[in-house]
Design a protein that fits this description.
- The protein is built from nine helices and eleven strands.
- The chain is α+β, with helices and mostly antiparallel strands.
- The chain has two domains: 8-142, Beta-Lactamase (2-Layer Sandwich), CATH 3.30.450.40; 152-297, Reverse transcriptase/Diguanylate cyclase domain (Alpha-Beta Plaits), CATH 3.30.70.270.
- Strand 3 and strand 4 form a beta hairpin.
- Helix 1 (20-40) runs antiparallel to helix 2, helix 2 (46-57) packs antiparallel against helix 3 and helix 5 (183-190) packs antiparallel against helix 6.
- It is elongated, with a radius of gyration of 27 Å.
- The protein starts with 7 loop residues before the first strand and ends with a strand.
């Protein structure tokens, strides 16, 4: 049997020797880690950070899906197949627990792969925490603090985008405005605590009445809006009737005799935000004028 000689080179700062092949692997992994850190710092969006991380780790592990679970909810990469076996890793910075990173893979994780993944996690955690902080700040800026619904500022942005899509891609939609009947009397008679409970209950009613493609907003007080991904008046009527039915069956809203008036309209490619809002508002006025607790189109 022939003798095989392995050339070695001292690694600076270490008292051992590595084969050239091992040193090359070490350099490659170090370079990949630096590239990963640089890429992760290009976005403050959790979904983007996770997608960038997935692109790098795919070279190491052939996983079918990647998911991150935290107090902000669950985020996963596009086209994730989460039916494979999950491998769960806790991500933390010191004593601060960020959440759980879950790999879904058809193949088992060896100790070597697991060790390399944990090394990549050290590059991920700080950009991920920055993205989580940004998400929290963004939510404070775009969410109503009482109900958790989108606020008026977010409504303006979403409405502008939908109008642009309507003009460019012929994607019509509907705007629904809602106002609670008898709400002022509830506040005046029973206090703001009961008023707040009523508003939160109504927010739950609205979220239970729409589809995932629709968006709910609170403007302030007892004024709300829904942007509906559907160009048909019949769809608006179905949503409106569902909302009024849920309100009737709500224990707190029926107890204090709170009902809802609704106005809605369809967007056209020629609309601006003022025009579509004005029409929905006229529908709401018609509902109020007709005795309240009703829905009117305009």
């Amino acid at each position: 049997m022939e003798n095989v000689h392995i050339l070695t080179q001292r690694v600076s700062g270490r008292g051992d020797f590595l084969p050239f092949s091992a040193e090359h692997t070490l350099i490659n992994e170090t370079t990949a880690a630096h590239e990963l850190v640089a890429e992760l710092q290009t976005s403050l969006i959790i979904e983007d950070v996770l997608a960038i991380y997935a692109k790098f780790t795919k070279k190491l592990l052939n996983f079918t899906g990647l998911q991150f679970q935290s107090t902000l909810g669950t985020t996963q990469t596009s086209e994730s197949d989460i039916n494979s076996k999950p491998y769960i890793f806790d991500l933390a910075i010191g004593k601060e627990h960020l959440g759980q990173l879950i790999y879904f893979s058809k193949y088992p994780l060896s100790q070597t792969i697991e060790k390399k993944l944990r090394a990549f996690h050290t590059a991920l955690v700080y950009p991920l925490r920055n993205a989580m902080m940004y998400s929290r700040v963004l939510r404070l800026a775009t969410k109503d603090s009482l109900t958790g619904l989108n606020n008026r500022s977010q409504f303006n942005d979403v409405l502008s985008q939908k109008l642009e899509n309507c003009r460019r891609y012929q994607r019509p939609f509907s705007l629904m405005l809602l106002d609670l009947d008898n709400f002022k009397q509830v506040n005046d008679t029973f206090g703001h605590k009961i008023g707040d409970d009523t508003l939160k209950e109504f927010a739950n009613v609205l979220q239970s009445s729409i589809r995932a493609t629709d968006s709910v907003f609170r403007f302030g007080g007892d004024e709300f809006a829904i942007l509906i991904e559907d160009p048909e008046f019949t769809t608006n009527k179905v949503v409106a009737e569902r909302i009024m039915r849920f309100v009737r069956h709500s224990s707190i809203m029926s107890k204090y005799k709170v009902t809802v008036s609704i106005g809605y309209t369809l967007a056209t490619s020629n609309d601006c935000d003022v025009e579509i809002f004005s029409r929905a508002d006229k529908g709401l006025y018609k509902a109020k004028a007709s005795g309240r607790n009703s829905a009117k189109a305009y």
